[in-house]
Amino acid sequence: MASSQGGVGAVTALQSHHYSSGPHWSPGISQFQHQQHHTARSLDRALEDAVCSGILNLSGRKLREYPGVSYDLTDTTQADLSKNRLTEIPPEVCLFAPLESLNLYHNCIKCIPEAIINLQMLTYLDISRNLLSVLPKYLFNLPLKVLLVSNNKLVSIPEEIGKAKDLMELDVSCNEIQVLPAQVGRLHALRELNIRKNCLHMLPEELADLPLIRLDFSCNKITEIPPAYRKLRQLQHIILDNNPMQSPPAQICLKGKVHIFKYLNIQACRLDKKPDTLDLPSLDFYPTKNHGPDSGIGSDNGDKRLSTTEVRIQTTLTFCEYSSTDPSFTMRRKMEHLREEMEQIGLLRQNIESRLKVLLPDDVGAALMDGVVLCHLANHICPRSVASIHVPSPAVPKLSMAKCRRNVENFLDACKKLGVPQDKLCLPHHILEERGLVKVGVTVQALLDLSSSSRPAQLLTV
């Protein structure tokens, strides 16, 4: 009896202290049980709403199994199951005949079942950040307009992709694809193609016949752009950085798409052994509005560089004329700048590998993106400088962007506390977006310099 009174008194005191405005807690229900009850109730509500609206949203609920078995969701037109822990596409979802959009981003799915061919209304499929090693042939019998399969483990794309006649956007970036099939050239509706960060050595000439607006093949091993690509009249954005480019040379690529297309036209003329007209899509590249830094038009109203009028007049420009007017001294400067950047990235790799006794992959940016290696480096230099590190697990082999960001911010906070000057600290996006490796290298070098000069004092203060 005394213990019962004590329990009631404890609950009363708890309510009157911090939780007076919160829910009433009974002695028989723990906080954990209450949270479970609340989660189950919100899940039921989401499923009930989907029955009425046809829009199923179960994103970010850490689901390992599909919870809607007892609900009639066969009229669903949009399903969002992203950011869960599903290991397969639920068979029930493959029975949603009217389904138009399916989002499976960031799960642990290893294969696409054949039952997906039931979804003959499906136009949008996002299955990025999963564990796919192959795309099945039957997938391309669907009327897809958008297919996103980045950040998987794909090593190839089947030739059957040529059947996806309605496909307008294809993203297969961040995989291990070695060859792009020529059948991609049959995708006559394709507007955006992202093949960034794969293992490609060459581009298929068949892409030249597509109405592409955006093409990203950065971070591969490509050395040459086929001269036939000069026919890509609608192309507005071409992204090709981090490739060992030889044709066009790197100095031409740095000057932007106008100069790339001029080079491709010149190469085509040389191959034909006769002068030819340039296929520069001047109307697309030179709108009457503002000109971007990649447009090939200088800031002085285009007087000092290539102007729109000049492009239209010089339609029979020969190789000799082009090379004689080319400012080679600026090219040399840019090449020297590129060489210095590569040397600094090599030094960054060497610093990390020698300290942590590890071997980083070829893509240093991808290895550092989640912040795990950098946090371990900070703790190696000064133990416990980063108290908590989010690391991948067998169940969730890829960290969420939020956890990656926390790792990176914890690393930068540790650098600041250890005395790295503010002007040598990189920003989080330099690591997370893999776009500022040189600045990351400056931060790491400053951290190592501090450790060699004042490590004993730092260890005493920890």
TrEMBL record:
Keyword field contains Protease: no
Entry GO CC: cytoplasm
Keywords attached to this entry: Leucine-rich repeat, Repeat
Calponin-homology (CH) domain sequence ranges: 338-451
Pfam families, sorted: CH (PF00307), LRR_8 (PF13855)
Record-annotated membrane-spanning stretches: none
CDD domains named among the record's database cross-references: CH_LRCH2
Classification via PANTHER family: LEUCINE-RICH REPEAT AND CALPONIN HOMOLOGY DOMAIN-CONTAINING PROTEIN 2 ISOFORM X1, PTHR48051
Protein's name according to its UniProt entry: Calponin-homology (CH) domain-containing protein
Lineage: Eukaryota, Metazoa, Chordata, Craniata, Vertebrata
Gene: LRCH2
